[in-house]
Amino acid sequence: MRAFLPLAILLLFPLGNSCDLAGQELEPRNLTNLPRGLNFVSAGYLYTSGNTLLDPSLPLEDFNGRINILTAAYIRSVNFWGKSGKIGVILPFAGGDFEGRFDGDPFADTYTGLGDIRLRAAVNLTGAPSLTLREFADYQQKTITGFGLQITAPTGNYRPEQLPNLGTNRWTFRLNYGISHTVKKWIFELYAGVWFFTPNNEFLEDFRQTQLPLWVAKSSIVRTIGRAGWIAFSAGYGYGARVSIDGAQRDIVISQLRLSLVYAHQIASSHTVKLVVGSGIRFEQGGDFDAFGIVYQYSWLDKKSRPKTP
Known about the structure:
four-stranded antiparallel beta sheet; elongated
């Protein structure tokens, strides 16, 4: 039996402003301005069940997975030539049970290990200058535009002879552009992006897998709740990613919708908890699943970025 579960396209929902489940990562408040020198560390748990297989390259039927995902992330707000920005790194660890039919034969398998590490950078192009904490106190957020880059490195567990795999054995590059507009307690966001994939030369042991870009569109509506919380509904649609195996193109494309609801609450100074629920809905190929998660996030400001007391 062979099955393939790429974790780099398995984290859809926002964990600590960072983790996601592929094609369309749903990340509300991703363009929100922050004072420079602010740091975040987070630890999250996500559970998904259903057809979590997003790769259209395998002859699998009736696929079902129950996946437990742990994530660790670090994010820092930085100054990009006078513009506010963020850099970050995300490391996932997952384990799960999988079942279905391969070439008509039933199978069941269990696998646990590291996923592919992700490196991220984003810069707000307009409407969000880089500010100190003292300057940030007078800042009023209105319309922001920004650009982001994510690089997924092939560091996760990948063994052609031992499948399913939690790593993808290839590099992935995601580019996205977004716009955010604030009206009193509401934030409205729109994003457009594209994923590029390098070849996997050890696909199913002896084959070379290539994949065309995956195009995505996302939107979020965010409502702030008092001074300590917010809630967001997000939706994203992805299309494309047609696959070729040894140069033979398969007549299958990913077409899927992602939905998520996030509630975040600051439980104490520098401490925040987020609750996440969501679903994936496929139209042609892609995941069809439900998920829920919880994230703990801790933040602190660099000493040199703190206001000096008289």
